[in-house]
Design a protein that fits this description.
heterodimer, A: 91 residues, mainly alpha, 5 helices, B: 406 residues, mainly beta, Porin, 16-stranded antiparallel barrel, 21 strands, 54% strand
Chain lengths: 91, 406
């Protein structure tokens, strides 16, 4: 009887933890509104949080890719934001 | 025409056609081979110039300027004494910092930023980042410790709206260690984390703190982190909280059990209200060191104080980016209030506040000419018996500073 109680408790904890993990993972999804943002829009919104919005002509495609990684470490951009902004600046 | 003549003409034609074809063929072959050789050479040239999956580049910044100071010290019961100075270079401060970056695909980034400040060549950071998964970057080396927004994001001369730094934001600075960071979506919102494990801080004999450096001063390490939330879908508002814990005493010293806790909060709001771009930033830091006994350098008399330090700043800048006038739209006005309160009854105890007024002209998006007027007022709360100097110090400064990111 005691063993069954322990098992049911463990099961309950596992279910709760799984539920919490699911909620966390699901909540870390972006909405359709956010997904639909263009690179230009993300460039305008995110760069100016710290400095002026950079001119795409300032650097080459390869340079923007490297700068994109650097900026991701500084401003904690999401991966999608980084990729879209770099694609816009590389045009 | 006779039959013989006709046959002769036919034979001549029959001979001429193959000859003509062969000549054309020979010409075509000559043209083709030249073209092919040229194309091959161009292809080789392109192949030699392809970017590959690795890329190395140099970026960086330099700041240069002129500063004129008038410092007035008023000792208790005495008339004020003023000293005037002016200099090039030290426009808080001269800096030339080339940043070397090398990336390997989208997985690795190596960054190294040496910096010449007019007197010495130091290193701002030297670290490697591994982009392990979406929202997970692992970094190691010497890097800016995650705490607040000023040191990591706003201190660069071409970003800062004012010529000088707010007082009391040097710590925790850069340190050796490892860290994790990332940004993740949260529905319409976004959140980020930045945590690190590093060597930590060192408590000095007078109770001040500094970075321990590459050779750690004790077995304990420093845990630091910042978490932020961007609650609005256009990322115009960011609020962050930071925390830090470190053992700080040298092994074998009387500070063996000394610990430091730091906590902070920051805010960043950037929004366009046509035709103005409004930029509001602020940060509050608090440092607590566990109670210790200190000794005067002159006669080793024991004394103690509540080792708590706080620093804060609030800044606003306005730029009329939406106006048609090309000259006017490049101007920006800025104001910052900062406060720095160090422990009362320590040798360096003071209550300091500073007002900074700035007028900037943006030559390009990353090139700025700044004029800043700053007034600071510091009231000493220092321990006279321990060697502290009582009095009031007022400083008026005028900066002309040029900064560029390259």
């Amino acid at each position: 009887m005691k063993k069954i109680k322990i098992h049911s408790r463990a099961l309950m904890i596992a279910v709760i933890l799984s539920g919490m993990a699911s909620i966390l993972i699901t909540s870390c999804m972006e909405t359709a509104k956010i997904s639909a943002k263009s690179g230009a829009q993300l460039w305008a919104e995110n760069c100016q949080r710290c400095h002026n919005t950079p001119s795409p002509a300032s650097f080459s495609h390869e340079q923007w890719q490297t700068i994109g990684l650097h900026m991701q470490t500084r401003a904690q951009l999401t991966d999608k934001e980084r990729d879209k902004i770099v694609a816009f600046l590389s045009q | 025409m006779t039959t013989v003549h006709k046959l002769s003409k036919l034979m001549a034609c029959a001979l001429a056609i193959p000859l003509t074809i062969n000549t054309v063929k020979a010409q075509t072959t000559t043209v083709d081979s030249t073209l092919i050789n040229r194309i091959t050479a161009l292809e080789q040239q392109v192949a030699d110039q392809k970017s590959g999956e690795s890329h190395f580049m140099v970026a960086g910044l330099t700041t240069f300027g002129y500063v004129r100071n008038k410092t007035t010290f008023i000792a208790p019961g005495m008339a004020g004494q003023s000293v005037k100075t002016n200099s090039f270079g030290d426009a808080d401060h001269y800096e030339l910092s080339p940043m070397l970056m090398w990336n390997h695909g989208n997985k690795f980034l190596v960054e190294f930023e040496p910096s010449f400040d007019g007197n010495t060549i130091g290193v701002n950071w030297a670290n490697i980042s591994y982009f392990a998964a979406p929202g997970l970057i692992i970094h190691a080396g010497y890097f800016v410790v995650p705490f607040g927004i000023y040191n990591k994001r706003l201190a660069a001369g071409w970003i800062d709206k004012l010529a000088g730094d707010p007082n009391g934001f040097d710590l925790p600075g850069a340190d050796f260690g490892v860290g994790l960071s990332g940004g993740l979506p949260l529905g319409d919102m976004k959140w980020s984390y930045d945590v690190s494990l590093t060597n930590g801080l060192q408590l000095l004999p007078d109770g001040e703190l500094q970075n321990a450096g590459i050779v750690d001063n004790n077995k304990g390490k420093m845990v630091s982190g910042r978490f932020s939330l961007l609650p609005l879908s256009n990322s115009c508002l960011e609020v962050g909280v930071s925390g830090l814990y470190s053992s700080a005493g040298d092994v074998g010293s009387s500070f063996t059990n000394a610990n430091v806790t730091m906590y902070g909060a920051d805010i960043n709001f950037v929004q366009t209200f046509k035709p103005f771009l409004i930029n509001v930033k602020g940060q509050y830091n608090r440092i607590n060191v566990t109670r210790q006994t200190y000794f005067t350098q002159t006669d080793s008399t024991a004394y103690s104080f509540n080792n708590k330090t706080s620093s804060s700043f609030a800044q606003i800048s306005v730029r009329p980016i939406g106006v048609d006038n090309k000259l006017l739209k490049n101007f920006e006005v800025a104001y910052r209030y900062s406060n720095y309160t160090t422990p009362q009854s320590s040798i360096w105890g003071q209550n300091l506040y500073e007002h900074d007024f700035g007028l900037d002209y943006w030559i390009t998006w990353r090139t700025v000419l700044k004029f800043t007027y700053a007034h600071s007022h510091a009231l000493s709360t220092a321990n006279e018996a321990a060697g502290g100097v009582p009095g009031i110090t007022n400083v008026n400064s005028m900066y002309l500073q040029f900064s560029i990111e390259f």
